[in-house]
Amino acid sequence: MQQIRFPQNEFQSFEAPMRAEVDIRGLEVVQGKVPEHLDGGFYRLLGDRQWPSFTENDIFLLNEDGMASCLRISNGRVDFRTRYVRTPRFVAEEQAGRALFGAYRNPFTDDPSVQGVRRGTANVTMLSHAGKFFALKEDSPPVEMDPFTLETIGEYTFGGDLTSEACTAHPKIDPRTGELVFFGYCAKGPATKDIAYYEADRNGKIIHETWFKAPYTCMVHDIMVTQNYVVFPITPLRHEYEWLEKREPAFKYDTSEQVHLGVLPRKGTADQIRWFVGPNQCHGHTVGAYDDGRYIYADNTLSVRSFFPFFPNADGSPFDPEDTKPYMKRWVIDMASEGDTFTERQLLQYPCELPRIDTRFETQPYSFCALNLLDVPGQDRVGGGWQWIATMDVTGKKPTRIRYAGDNCSISEPQFVPAHDGAAEGEGYVLVVVGRHDEMRSEFLILDAQNIDGPPIATVALPMRVRSTGHGFWYGKRQLMGETHLLGAN
Questions:
Q1: Using CA atoms, how far apart are residues 456 and 444, in angstroms rounded to an integer?
Q2: 462 Cβ partners below 8 Å, 6+ apart?
Q3: Do residues 410 and 437 make contact, with C-beta atoms less than 8 angstroms apart?
Q4: What is the enclosing helix (H) or strand (E) of 93?
Q5: Is the pLDDT of residue 239 over 90?
Q6: Residue 207 pLDDT > 80, yes or no?
Q7: DSSP letter string over 63-121?
Q8: Which H helix or E strand runs over 343?
Q9: Which of 363, 291, 294, 374 lies closest to 328 in space, CA to CA?
Q10: More confident residue, 379 or 288
Q11: How does pLDDT run across 321-344, given as a tens digit for each residue?
């Protein structure tokens, strides 16, 4: 008989595996009132292993099974549901009753019985487009799910038109056209330079495909999309095949390599890509991007090296936590220049991550952004991780508002929801899940986006802890039903 025992590591106590599929009808509203016109779901993908790993020092944060969760809001009531994403990997291990897949992104460490089985965990974020709903992880195809029951339907390849072996977890929806803009890196398999770029129309049919090679193999977690261009950030979190063969970490940070920005016209071909070169740094997530016909303005979170301590420096130099702090910067690319450089400037003084804009302004000039802060000078932090949530105007015309969520807490990625269809940019709500570690429970906050540091519009109690996660997304019922591609309150 196999003894089930999870390792004693940092993912214990509040962050210990839960392994529970949950249904709770009618969560308690302990403060304020849930807006009755909100009709949709706040979806989050958690990592939650069904079986303990057989790999020593496994990366639990990234290498766990996907657990889809939904805070379903309708008529002022909030229900809660979680379901495992039943990927090919999950099903194989469920049938075996034990872990079969080894180290993160390394097929050489797997049990021989699962050779050729897709390794994706579908544990990053969720997407609704053209009446379909997906769980995403960047090393594998999307997994289609039912948005209301969270039951898994199966892997989705756009009717066979997705030829890349991988699909990003950070696609963009162009609000003007409803087109889905997405890509896959390592598109021909682990540690390959191949990138495949796609656009699908508002009905979900792929209408454009382009392949090209990156200057070097690396993680390409996110992209920047404007009305006329797509920018691919090639930053040196390297991914080399020989490391996989040696059972070394799949990714290492290379401090000697420059940043390369690949700029491709929307629906362009590989021969049209231009490469711009800049100083060494590590890309986190895109905030927003737009162009004026000549200049591309692309806002991103960037750090000196990789945010993740389990990806070592390639040169063997020690890990320095200060180097991992991400800051928001604006890259400006002059498409009329004959050179290959770009400029940058910092937009926010605080280390920050998980930025979310009003997605009705995706690909266009924007100002509003909600995000999490790692530190606020002059304010004490009790505990680790993201404990402040903030809203800012990237143009600097309005002051940054900051809310401290409390001692020993953890904050998930915030999500903006417009108050109504005609709402001005940033007029609406910010949704966020807060983990109260001392109390071993979580709560769901609905905040006024223009007054984030004021009293919550509503505080909804969860009678249990919900593990932290990187990403979340609100989808109104009309969007889930395929009636609109725009983010809305209902």
A1: 10
A2: 24, 27, 80, 441, 442, 443, 444
A3: yes
A4: helix 88-96
A5: yes
A6: yes
A7: SS-EEEEEEEEETTEEEEEEEE---HHHHHHHHHTS----STT-GGGS-GGGTTS----
A8: strand 343-346
A9: 374
A10: 288
A11: 999 999 999 999 999 999 999 999
> What is the β-pairing status of strands 206-213 and 194-200?
antiparallel
Which strand ranges, in their side-by-side order, compose the sheet holding 282-291? 282-291, 295-303, 327-334, 343-346
Q: Is the pLDDT of residue 9 over 80?
A: no
Phi/psi for 360 (5° steps) reads -65, -15
Contact 11, 48 (CB under 8 A): no
Token pair 């194989």 is at which residue? 92
The residues facing 361 across adjacent strands are: none
- Dist. CA 330–CA 95, nearest whole Å: 48
pLDDT in tens, 77-108: 999 999 999 999 999 999 999 999 999 999 99
In sequence order, which residues have a C-beta less than 8 Å from that of residue 26 and are 6 or more positions away?
Answer: 77, 78, 79
Judge if pTM exceeds 0.90: yes
212-230 b/e (C-beta count within 10 Å ≥ 16 → b): bebeebbbbbbbbbbbbbb
Distance, CA of 371 to CA of 157 (rounded, Å): 32
Quote the CA–CA distance of 393 and 368 in Å, as a whole number. Answer: 5
Beta bridge partners of 442: 435, 462
Q: Are strands 40-47 and 125-129 parallel, antiparallel or unpaired?
A: unpaired
Which residues make Cβ contacts (< 8 Å) with residue 330, sequence separation at least 6? 297, 298, 299, 344, 345, 347, 394
DSSP letters of 330-342?
EEEEETT-SSSB-
Distance CA 477, CA 147 (A): 10
The answer to whether the beta carbons of residues 429 and 440 sit under 8 Å apart is no
pLDDT at 10: 64
Q: How much of the chain exceeds pLDDT 70, in percent?
A: 99
Q: Token digits for 456?
A: 């919550």
Backbone angles phi, psi at 138, to 5 degrees: -70, -5
Please name the helix (run of DSSP H) or strand (run of DSSP E) that holds residue 96, with its range, or none: helix 88-96
Tell me the β-bridge partners of 276.
261
Lowest mean pLDDT: which of 31-45, 225-239, 380-394?
380-394
The pair phi, psi for residue 163, each rounded to 5°, is: -95, -15
The amino acid occupying position 437 is: H
Scanning the structure block, which residue is given the tokens 């803009």? 181
453 dihedral zone (left: phi>0; alpha: psi -120 to 50; beta): alpha
Distance CA(104)–CA(112), nearest Å, equals 16
**3 state SS of 469:** coil
Q: Specify the residue for token string 């009717």.
A: 159
Secondary structure (3-state) at 321: helix
Single-letter code of the amino acid located at 238: R
